[in-house]
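Input structure tokens:
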């Protein structure tokens, strides 16, 4: 895949607060890329730098393999933090101002209002919109000019379930027609439902980076016990069947390696002359894995 955005050693501090530190990322064309992390992890700072809102202290980034120039802005639609519009102007007039800033024709306004399901409210003042509608108008503004890339910062933040579903549908439609998406969120389920790739940040540093299906895959976990749990633990530890073994309340909790089944664990124990008298299968939730990644060091 062709490189779209490369970030090399990006750092930014606000006085004594380190927002991001030595961040390296590579995003390819056509990816739906999530930047996931709790509040204060540096997500908004990262997006603000790559969209030219603020300047980094050190490091660099390139769009489309080139040093950032103003011409790139026509190919990038962004919504950073909350959308900002004039409350006393209607939707159409607010979007005309965005068109003037971007240097594009007003002819694209009906298209983005239709896509965001706001065409019937085009003559309504911004102040009369619900929170979900305001967020959809922000997305409409980002889509003006049919940009190749959408950079969105917490687009569902503060919305009710209906508003979240509407925004998610709109974003997924853009991904479906081949747009590159860079999405910052602290909500694990949103990244899982929208993104193909994810970078996980904590306190401005990159913890993990890769395909969602690999980083946030639901591991199968097996609880087992037998007459000699310590012997079983030693045998399983060298079996190549498990990636992790923990002891909880008199049972062994096994995280299975990919494609290993509970049946294979049972057969292995039997081959070691150990008969399992307890076996329970469960899934490790995506949320628990995310919390493990970002939890404080003990």
């Amino acid at each position: 895949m062709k490189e779209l955005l490369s970030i090399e050693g990006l750092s930014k501090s606000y006085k004594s607060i380190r927002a991001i530190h030595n961040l390296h990322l590579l995003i390819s064309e056509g990816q739906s890329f999530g930047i996931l992390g709790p509040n204060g992890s540096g997500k908004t700072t990262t997006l603000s730098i790559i969209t030219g809102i603020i300047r980094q202290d050190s490091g660099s980034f390139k769009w489309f393999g080139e040093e950032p120039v103003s011409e790139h802005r026509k190919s990038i639609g962004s919504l950073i933090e909350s959308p900002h519009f004039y409350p006393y102007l209607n939707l159409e007039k607010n979007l005309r101002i965005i068109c003037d800033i971007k240097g594009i024709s007003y002819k694209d306004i009906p298209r983005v209002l239709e896509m965001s399901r706001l065409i019937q409210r085009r003559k309504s003042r911004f102040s009369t919109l619900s929170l979900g509608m305001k967020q959809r108008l922000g997305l409409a503004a980002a889509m003006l000019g049919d940009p190749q890339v959408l950079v969105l910062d917490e687009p569902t933040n503060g919305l009710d379930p209906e508003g979240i579903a509407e925004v998610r549908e709109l974003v997924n439609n853009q991904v479906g027609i081949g747009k590159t998406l860079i999405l910052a969120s602290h909500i694990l389920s949103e990244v899982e439902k929208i993104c193909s790739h994810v970078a996980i940040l904590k306190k401005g540093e990159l913890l993990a980076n890769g395909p969602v299906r690999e980083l946030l895959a639901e591991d199968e976990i097996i609880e087992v016990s037998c007459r000699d749990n310590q012997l079983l633990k030693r045998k399983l530890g060298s079996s190549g069947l498990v990636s992790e073994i923990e002891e909880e309340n008199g049972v062994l909790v096994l995280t299975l390696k990919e494609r290993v089944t509970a049946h294979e664990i049972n057969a292995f124990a039997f081959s070691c002359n150990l008969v399992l008298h307890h076996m329970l299968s469960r899934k490790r939730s995506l949320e628990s894995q995310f919390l493990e990644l970002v939890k404080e060091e003990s």
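The mean pLDDT is 89. The longest strand covers residues 3-14.
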